Amino acid sequence: MPLAEHLRELRNRLFKSVLAIGVVTVVAALYYNQLIAFLVDPVLKAVGCSASLNEIAKQTAQDKQCAHITMNGLLTPFTLALKVSLMAGVVLATPIWLYQLWAFLAPGLHKAEKKYALGFVGAGFPLFLAGAFFAYKILPTTATVLIGFTPANVDNLLPLDDYLDLVTRMVVVFGLSFELPLLLVLLNFAGILSGKKMLGWWRGMIMGITVFAAIATPSTDPLSMLALAGPIWVLYFIAVAISILNDRRRRRRNPDADLDDDEASDLDLTPEAVGAGLPEQASRREELEGGSDGYDDAT
What we know:
mainly alpha
C-alpha cells in the first residue's frame, strides 16, 4: 500500500475512534450526576461531614475530622461536567478505539505476530481495569488517612475538581503499574529478557515495587501501599513463571535460542555410519574385486 493510502487509512481509523469517544461522551453526560456520585460517595461515606449540626458538634468534640466537598467558580460545574464525561467516554470506548488501532496495524503483521499482539492487547485492558479497581477501592482509606492530618476544630474544604484530579492520577498510576508484568512477558517473547534472569532480579524487584507503591500512593498508611504492591508482586512472579515456560519451549525447538550473537553453538561430533557409497564408487569397487589391475584405459 502506498504512503497516501496508509495516511488515508489512518485518518479513517482516527475518525472512527474519535466518533466513538464522542458518542459515549454524550451518553455519559446524560448520566453526569450518577458518575459524580459513583466517584464521590465512597469518600463522603469515609470522611464526609454530616448534615446534622448536632452530629458535627459531636464529631468535633471527639476530635474526628471531616471534609466538605465544594466547587468554586461559576464555570466550574460546567467544566467539571465536560471533564468527567470525556474521561468516561475515553474509558468506556476503549474496546472500540483499541480495535481501530489493531485494524490499522494488523495488515503489517505476520500470523504469529498477530496472535501475540492480540493476546497482549486482550490481556492489557483487563490488567488496567484491575489496577483502576484497586485504586477505587483504596480511595476511602486514603482519604481517611489524609484528612486525619487536619488540625482540630478546622473544617477541611475539598474542591471537587481537585478530588477528581487525584482520582484520575491514582487510576492511571495503578492501571499502568499493573501493566509491568505484561511488559516483562513481552520482552521475554521478543527474546530480549530470559525468565532465569528475571527470577534472579526478584529481590531488587520486590524492593523497587515496594518503593514505587510508597511513592505512588498519596497516603502514608502501609495498607494503601500494600494494596498496590501486593498484586504487582503476584503478577511479577506470574510473569516470571510464564517466561520460564516460554524459554523451555523455545529451547526444545531450538537448542541455540539462548545463545548471544557472539557465542558459538555446540558442534555435533557424533560419528555417523558410512553407507555403500555412490553408485559409481560401488561399480568401481566391484571392478577391482573382480581381478582388474586397478588401472583405467588411459593409464
